[in-house]
Design a protein that fits this description.
About 20% of the residues lie in helices and about 40% in strands. It is α+β, with helices and mostly antiparallel strands and about 130 residues long. Strands 1, 2, 3, 4, 5, 6, 7, 8 and 9 form a nine-stranded mixed sheet that branches. The longest helix is centred in the N-terminal third of the chain and has 14 residues.
């Protein structure tokens, strides 16, 4: 069901030290920074990311955090997004669509739920 978890940080270098230690302790590898300055961990089929909040505000328990849901197709992601907007959610960032990701093309759709939590529908395009 979930594709990834992302948390915000006000000090990426400090957070990388902390999370590198955690992932190493559980048999994982240190995180790898991407071109946007986010640090990405891949372990046991999951992804965990840390980064500065996109909106430029300070990271808090929720600001900068994203809960990602794996989708079977772009159509499913778009339907997920439309259902969220129709039921009290708010669209954010770019409109739903295909983007270039670190591991290839992806289809993304972002929402905030009625309480402000940031959610993302993710379909990894293959083939």
């Amino acid at each position: 069901m979930f594709s990834h978890v992302m948390v915000g940080s006000n000090d990426i270098a400090r957070s990388k030290i902390f999370y590198d230690a955690l992932f190493t302790a559980m048999g994982g590898e240190p995180g790898v920074a991407d071109a946007k300055g986010r640090v990405i961990y891949a372990h046991r089929g999951g992804r965990f990311l840390i980064g500065k909040p996109i909106d430029g505000k300070s990271a808090t328990g929720a600001n900068g955090g994203t809960i990602g849901f794996t989708m079977e197709s772009p159509e499913e992601a778009k339907a997920w997004h439309d259902a969220g907007v129709a039921n009290g959610g708010t669209t954010l960032e770019d409109p739903p669509g295909e983007r270039s990701g670190a591991s290839g093309p992806i289809y993304l759709a972002y929402l905030r739920d009625p309480d402000g939590n940031k959610l993302c529908a993710v379909h990894r395009i293959t083939g």
